[in-house]
Amino acid sequence: MSRRILTYLTPEEYLRLERRAEYKSEYLNGEMFAMSGARRAHNLITINISGELRQQLKGRPCETYAGEMRVKVLSNGLYTYPDVVVIRGEPQFEDSELDTLVNPTVLVEVLSQSTERYDRMGKTFYYRTVDSLAEHLLVAQHKMHVEQFVKQPNGEWLLIEYTSPRQEVKLASIDCLLALFEIYDRVTFDQTYHVSR
């Protein structure tokens, strides 16, 4: 009979390993989770969104990162790689390596078949504990559908959904607009997509 041995990693051990790794891993509660590569639609959507935001934010006190900027959720120690991150104002980092951001203003997750449940339920819950976060987008890749969560003055989150190419997502926190036809430029939809249970 074999025994599965789980090795608990401290956040410091995770960061040491992650900074030398050839592939990205997320971290939560002492465990590392390897990230798989993304499909064409996922990559197109991520680049379309980050490109549009970079263009609109040129010359303004904001920074945009796509896919490679690690974010730490201070309330629970989650280390994750959102698909797009925007910071309004001065970025704040966990340490002098400047590779782990702690004050995102906008986070975007492009939903993948293998991670949609976690992105929708786990990450969304964790993200909502980030004090600096003002808006969070969940972007489908198998159909035209964007869910925008906007933090309200009372701390509650308002959900706005978009499904038409003529609609625009208004990101008030950074004064940007994302037209759905731009988000989904060159994307074809796969009808065989099923959310993993």
Briefly say what this structure is:
By secondary structure, the protein is an alpha+beta fold. The protein has helices at 11-18, 40-57, 116-127, 180-183; strands at 25-28, 31-34, 62-66, 70-73, 78-80, 84-88, 100-101, 106-110, 135-139, 146-151, 157-162, 168-171, 176-179.
**Can you name the CATH architecture?**
Alpha-Beta Complex
- Distance between the amino and carboxyl termini: 29 Å
Q: What is the number of strand segments?
A: 13
Q: Strand share of the residues?
A: 25-35%
In CATH, the topology is named tt1808, chain A
Give the integer mean of the pLDDT values. Answer: 91
Mind explaining what this structure looks like?
The chain is an alpha+beta fold. It has a single domain (39-183), classed as tt1808, chain A (Alpha-Beta Complex). The chain contains 4 helices and 13 strands. It has helices at residues 11-18, 40-57, 116-127, 180-183; strands spanning 25-28, 31-34, 62-66, 70-73, 78-80, 84-88, 100-101, 106-110, 135-139, 146-151, 157-162, 168-171, 176-179. It has a 6-stranded mixed beta sheet with strand order 3-6-8-9-10-11, with helices on both faces. It has a 3-stranded mixed beta sheet with strand order 5-4-7, with no helix packed on it. The longest helix has 18 residues, at 40-57. It is globular, with a radius of gyration of 17 Å. The chain starts with 10 loop residues before the first helix and ends in a 14-residue tail after the last helix. 29% of the residues are buried. Residues 1-5 have low confidence and may be disordered.
